[in-house]
Each structure stands twice: as C-alpha cells, then as structure tokens.
Amino acid sequence: MRFLHTADWHIGKKLHGFDLAEEQIDAFEQVKKIALQQKVDAVVIAGDLYDRSLPSELAVEQLNQMIIELNLKLKKPILAISGNHDSATRLNTGHEWFKATQYYLSTNLVEALQPIEFEDTQFFLLPYFQPYQARNLFEDPTLVEVNTALKRIIKEMKMKFNPLKKHILVAHFFVAGSSKTDSETKIEVGGLNAVPAELLCDFDYVALGHLHNKDALKEEKIKYSGSLLKFSASEANLKKGVWIVDTDPFKCTFIPLIPLRDVVVLTNSYQELISPKTAKQIPRETYVAIKLTDKAIIPDVMNSLRNYYPRIISLERAYGREDNDAEKEDVNLNLDPMELLTNFFHEITDEELSSEQKKWAAESLGTLEKEADL
Amino acid sequence: MRFLHTADWHIGKKLHGFDLAEEQIDAFEQVKKIALQQKVDAVVIAGDLYDRSLPSELAVEQLNQMIIELNLKLKKPILAISGNHDSATRLNTGHEWFKATQYYLSTNLVEALQPIEFEDTQFFLLPYFQPYQARNLFEDPTLVEVNTALKRIIKEMKMKFNPLKKHILVAHFFVAGSSKTDSETKIEVGGLNAVPAELLCDFDYVALGHLHNKDALKEEKIKYSGSLLKFSASEANLKKGVWIVDTDPFKCTFIPLIPLRDVVVLTNSYQELISPKTAKQIPRETYVAIKLTDKAIIPDVMNSLRNYYPRIISLERAYGREDNDAEKEDVNLNLDPMELLTNFFHEITDEELSSEQKKWAAESLGTLEKEADL
C-alpha cells in the first residue's frame, strides 16, 4: 500500500507572536492535494497535532475542520497518535466514533498494541508515552526508562505480527543520533530517554514525529517527516514536506511544500539591510531572523528595520555589540533541563548527582515537561 | 415517544473548593438506571454539559465516558445542545461522527433549524446563542434582542413542522417569570434577554436548561429539568431529578435522584451545632451551609466547626456579629451586572444611562459574560 507520512502540525502555534493559522491552512491544502495526486491509501500523522495541551477554540476548529476534510470529505483513512504537545485526553474526544470512518487515533498504550489492519499492512500506533504508563500496563516495576519500556511494548507488538503483511510503526520520540532544531521540546531528558534505532529494526518502516527536520535521522526505513512549517530561525534552511511511502516494494519519496511565507535568516549590516536593493529581494511577508554584522549602537534599530521587514522574528548581533555591558552571559538556556539541573546541583552542593538521583531527576523532569507542555 | 429530560450537568464543577466528581458520577449512574427502567427512546440534555468552556482533562474524560455509556453501550439516542457554560467549539469536536449512533449534538443556529426526526416526533435543538448570531445568520440587523431573534428562529422552525408529528424544542435560556437560585450565571442581563413564555406556545413541549430548579417556571409544557446536583446553599431545599416526558398522550413525570452527599443549611447556635446530639443527625459527608444564630465573637469558629462538619461550604451570621465594624456592607454582588453598571454610572456621572447606552451595555455584558464564562 501507499501512505502519506506527516507529523508535527502544531496547530495553534505562534511564531514569535505571529499567528500561523494562514500558513497552517495553506500547508494543509498542499498536503490534501498531494494525498489526492499520489492516490495514497492512508495518511499517517505521527503526533503533535496541536501545539499545546489546551488549544484555543480557533485551533480546535481548525484541526477539526482538517480532519473532517481529509477523512469525511476525501475519504482518506487517517492513522494518528498523540504527541508530547497534545493532551491525550482532550485529543481523544470522539475517538470511539472515529473508527467507523477509518480515522484511527491512538492516545494510550493499550490501543498501541492492537494493530490497525489493512489488506497487506499492519499499523501499530504508539502515542507519546511516559515509562510509568508501561510500568502500570505491564505491572513491571523494572520499566523505568523509555528504552526498556519500548522494548517491552515492541515485544508485545511482535506477537501480533501477521507474517503475510508489512509492519509499520507510528511513534513520537527521540531516536538516538538524530539532529535537533531549536523548536522541539526536549523530551529526551539527560539522554536517558533516547531510543536506539536498533530497537526499531523489526518494522518495515517507522513513521516518526517529534523532530522537525526530515533529515534528522540517517536511516532508510526510520524517518521523521519533519513539520509542515518552519517553526524557528534554526529551521530556515530545512526543506519542509511529506513522505510518500510505498510498502511493497519499499520506496520512500519526499514531496516538498511551498511555504506561504518563508522563514529566512539575514546576516548583514544595517546599511545593507535598509538599502532598497537588499530589501526588495525579500518578500515583505517573509519571516525574517536578522543577524546584524554591525557592532555599533543603532538607535531604534528594531522599529526602523520593521519598515522594511514587517515580520521580524528575531534580531541578534552576529559579532556582539560595542557596549560590552549589554553582552553579559546569562544561564545558557540551550542546555537541556537535565544538564541545567546537574550544573545547579553541583553549584549548590559541590557534589555530583548519584545515579539514583539522576534517575529520579530524569523521571520528574519528564513528568514536568509533559505537564507544563513546554 | 418517551424521553428523559435533563440539563445542567456542569461536569467539572467544584462546590466551594470541594470536587464534585464522585457526586456527578453517582447522579449519572442514577440517570442511566432511570433511562433503562423507564425504557425511554431518547435522552435530552439541554445545555451546560460542562461547567466551563475550558474543562479540565478530568472533566473531559468524565463527560466523554458518560456519553459513551449512554449512547454507545446502552444505545440510547442523545439530543444535546451547548449551554452558556460550554464552549460550543470545543464541545462540537467529533460532532460529524456522532450522528451515526444517534448522538445529536447542536452547537450552532444552522443546526437548530434542522429538526431531528423520530417516528412521531420532531426535535429542534437550539443551543445557547447570542443575538448577533441570529443577525448574521438571517442577515437582519433588527435582531438585537434575544426575543426578536428567537421569534425569527421559531418562525423558521415552524416552516419545518411536520403536522403529523409532535414538536419538541430543546433550549437554554431564561424564560421571563422563572425563579432563580444563586448558582446560575445571569445571562438575562438587564432583563432584555428574558424570553416570554408565549413565544414558545407552538411546541408540544419545551425542554429547558439553564435554571437549576425544576419548578422555576409554572408551565405545564415548558419545563426546566433543573441540575442533577445542588450547586449552592440556595438550592438546599430543591428536589433534584429528571423529567420523563411522554409525547402522546402528553404526560410529564418527575423522578427524583438520591444525593450521594446532600447540601443542607443549618441555622443554629454554636453550642447547639457542636453538641453530639445535633451533629449526629447530619452525616459527616454532607455539605453544610451554616448560619450561626450567635452574635458573640467565637475564636477559631470555622476550624472547630469543621471537626463536626468536615464539608462546610459557607459560614454566615444569621443576625450579624457584635463587632459592627466587621459588618460593613460591601457592594451588593447579588445585583445583576446591569444593575451594578447602572448604579456605578450614576455614582460617577450623576446621570442615568440613555436607552441606547443601556442597549450597548446589555450587549457588551452579554458578550463578556459568555466569554468570561462567569
């Protein structure tokens, strides 16, 4: 069979205060067209349908409408899971009715173990989960890390494998060795929660969500689809789109989307940026991350640049600024939460975290991050 | 046909900080049993399924489960509308799939005009609405008040009347002349939004939600079901339950529920209240609103009363307290928002609101109250 693999729609997301609703709808329309042109038998959405566990009414209406169009109007089966940004409970509303039209939505581990059967393919829909859910389900207190929990889950799935069919896993986690961007929530706290790719080798294809870069992982049959839109300046150079996957014979083709409004990084001097020649090259609607090469103080620089680039999403100095006082380094927030905590613990106690403390910390951080929907 | 009429479930509601989830589930179980025993052909829920437009995950799970049990497990058709406490958009999620199992949920005016057809009965499901929605739908700028808007809506409904069937309206508003309790949101701002009962005379029965007292209105065929639980001390003496309605020949029977934990008002002296004889008469789990007849200062009165009555929901002095300083009258918050605004305007400007200003104020307050979900 042939299916379309997408993920990380993040409906409701704002880009530095700019509402992305128009961009989201435009990208969705392109996905719809691709699904039709490519005559796919199903659409896989590998988590993070919403940007937050408490989506706005507008976001709810928008996602509801998209699912209605894809599933009820175009009659495309949908295979979806909840991601770390979704509230599994809220997303699950109506779930019992959805199967009737082949909208398969999985938000808990019990459902993950039951394959969705197509003529020649079995889909296992594994939502974003915490190890404690596996501990509870299997009544096994040793399932403390994502790895061991996943191993157990996959063992269970394999017992349901029909050898005459292909086996596809849809999941939402961080696979060890993947490269990251700035716009993903770090769920692989302290590295304990990264999944080794070897664990996934029994599937004919693994359709992943979570990372926003389609090339985050260099595996032939384990792929992130990436997001439909660029969600940060760090994604400016990424190609966004969807995978079209043929299961037999296996083939995986990337189909790019054309952004309604692109995200670009401009590294240049103030004088160059406000010259008509430079400014004209960038459509006014483009989201612009500016790295100023000047070191001098420029009065009211943000407002004057906005005259040329109305959608500035960030303004930095490529080489710092002359008044060094303003350059004081703050806590490095790019460290993952576990590193921050480890450093803080060391600063305060002058001791290192024990391995048991590390385990506790990792678990608590995992729970906190899920709850805070960071 | 025979149907059960209920409303104002307010799933997720707390009673002065006490979670009512257990009471809600218990009441629902009783409703289920009544639906089975009475062999009803459908269950009508006339709005305010949730207590707030942004229900907690727990509330979402609870209501989802109730609908699943009633509709999918017991196979009872459900006829439901959104009330002023519900987010129409959020409640609507999955709506397009629900019809397949006869779960009819109406959250907007367009749906209200399409009757739900049973063999011998037509149901019109009119959700809580604001006049602007009618103005937009009918492109008629004169529909400024609820009355005129409703008149127009009913005119439209009557064009769909099948003369061979009975006609039932399910709605959520304040009918003029109804008596109120303290736990309902005042949506009839300034009296402009009260609906005269005469407007509803063309229906064989009007199943209302909004007021929590089943006897709020003295009409044979226009009834509030009241809430399933007592939501304030002012409801302590009300009987809670559901109506069983036979359409032909018309008959309307009230079936009371037995509260898991009752709400009572105790008017008594401190010494009497802490006497074992008095305290023993009240089950410890009961929600108690206390009106102390003492006027003397009693140190730590709340905490010592809690030893006997752990679920105190309010503590007042029936006749005031000796230290009159503490009795200073605050703004009377029992006035409706329009009266408060009118008084405030007069205090500040020494003038009265013009009729046009009143109209604007009423409209703005209506919008605000809906948004703030007071």
From TrEMBL, chains A, B:
Keywords annotated in UniProt: DNA recombination, DNA replication, Endonuclease, Exonuclease, Hydrolase, Nuclease
Domain Calcineurin-like phosphoesterase stretches: 1-213
Keyword Nuclease: yes
Gene Ontology MF terms in the entry: 3'-5' exonuclease activity; endonuclease activity
Segments crossing the lipid bilayer: none
Keyword Nuclease: yes
Domain Nuclease SbcCD subunit D C-terminal, residue spans: 260-347
GO biological-process terms attached to the record: DNA recombination; DNA replication
NCBIfam families listed in its UniProt record: sbcd
Subunit structure: Heterodimer of SbcC and SbcD.
Family: Belongs to the SbcD family.
Its biological purpose: SbcCD cleaves DNA hairpin structures. These structures can inhibit DNA replication and are intermediates in certain DNA recombination reactions. The complex acts as a 3'->5' double strand exonuclease that can open hairpins. It also has a 5' single-strand endonuclease activity.
Name under which the protein is recorded: Nuclease SbcCD subunit D
